[in-house]
Each structure stands twice: as structure tokens, then as C-alpha cells.
Specification:
This protein is α+β, with helices and mostly antiparallel strands. It has one domain: Glutaredoxin (3-Layer(aba) Sandwich), CATH 3.40.30. Helix content is 32%, strand content 19%. It has 4 helices and 4 strands. The chain has a two-stranded parallel sheet. A two-stranded antiparallel sheet has the order 3-4. The longest helix has 11 residues, at 18-28. It is globular, with a radius of gyration of 14 Å.
Length: 91
């Protein structure tokens, strides 16, 4: 929620099917959509390791479409918020 309050648009992307996503989102009470990545096209496009195992990777895409932050694993929310606050025109 802190990310959305900072103006971020948040998505989760995973190759699991829609029913699995729905169950997962309900269980964790996620406040953002999960996208089904059939065939791993999104993972390959962002080089998240589709060839063997998809690795959790967090990307922050700036309003001008550039990747402003990228980190594998589960980075602290503060790091992600710092990347968002560095966008041009942000205070």
C-alpha cells in the first residue's frame, strides 16, 4: 500500500494460472493485480531467469518507461520508495 500511496502502479507477474493467482491474492489480501505470464515471455523480456528457474525480481519503471530500479529477491520497501522518490519532478 505504501508503494501505491507513493504513486507506483504495482503488478505481480508469475507463470501460474489465473485460478492459482486468485487463490494466492485472496490468501495474502493483495492490493495489486497478478498477471499470468504464459510461457514466461515477461520473465524473459526482463531477464528474470526463465531458462531454469524464475527468480523473484523487483523492477521500478519510471513514468518515462525506463527501469529506475532492479533487484532480485525481496528488497526492503524503503529502497523501492527511494527509487520512486528519485523520479524527475518528484519532491
Amino acid at each position: 500500500m505504501r508503494l501505491q500511496n507513493a504513486g507506483a502502479i504495482v503488478y505481480g507477474v508469475n507463470p501460474a494460472d489465473q485460478a492459482s493467482h486468485r487463490t494466492y491474492a485472496e490468501k495474502l489480501k493483495l492490493s495489486f493485480p497478478l498477471i499470468v505470464d504464459t510461457g514466461g515471455r515477461v520473465a524473459r523480456a526482463f531477464r528474470s531467469g526463465w531458462s531454469s528457474v524464475i527468480r523473484r525480481t523487483v523492477y521500478v519503471v519510471s513514468p518515462d518507461g525506463r527501469i529506475a530500479y532492479s533487484k532480485r529477491g525481496t528488497p526492503p520497501v524503503e529502497q523501492i520508495l527511494d527509487a520512486i522518490s528519485a523520479w524527475p519532478g518528484r519532491a
